[in-house]
Amino acid sequence: MSKKELQEDTLKEELQEDTLLSHLIELRTRLLKAGGAVLLFFVVLAPFSDVVFKQVALPLMEKLPEGSTMIATQVASPFLTPFKTTMFAALFLAMPVVLYQLWSFAAPGLYKKEKRFAVPLLASSMALFYLGAMFAYFVVFPLMFSFFTSAAPAGVAVMTDISSYLDFVLVLFFAFGMAFEVPIATVILVWSGLTSIESLEKNRAYVFLGAFIVGMLITPPDVISQTLLAVPVYLLYECGILLSKVLNNKDNQEI
Known about the structure:
The chain has 255 residues and is mainly alpha-helical. The chain is 81% helix and 0% strand.
């Protein structure tokens, strides 16, 4: 290898190292901003942690039999559980900022067409996640907790541990939030070429069955909550097919 070629290789390696270093610095900056947003919401909500937990526990508290209350079975639960709830609430509220920072980091590597497609996709994805969580809180929780409390055997006092309750509802919040992302997942599958609209239409029966299986696996063992998850998932699947058709027709017209 000549001296000139050696210098060129050295220059390329230095350039690659500088590029990698700049990407790492940019990633760190974006993560710090995202973490700062979560911390800011947490600091604002922390003085009201009891109020935040009370609001999250309200669907169950309203359905408990008269004279029953929630309990704490661990020494630190009365202190830690409200703060844990507040932390997740801060993350929930700061999620648009977190996703924006991740988007800002990835955007320079996307083509113009991909950027135009990704921005509304990101916004609608966030909106659907919030919608799924709200659906769980306002629709599913009241029906589900009403069923659980009424199904308690005679002589059994329903007194739920606050830590166990928080873990339970967090799983459901996440499950329904992700379930409502079905239209976005459908559009991405069609847009990326991994599947076609015709294939999605042919597999409707399997998706319908799969929605109930997923509902059975990730929700409590009662028909109400399973149905309340499965039916919206299937309807959102149909919305995803319809949206994919609209976007596909739009792309064909532009071509």
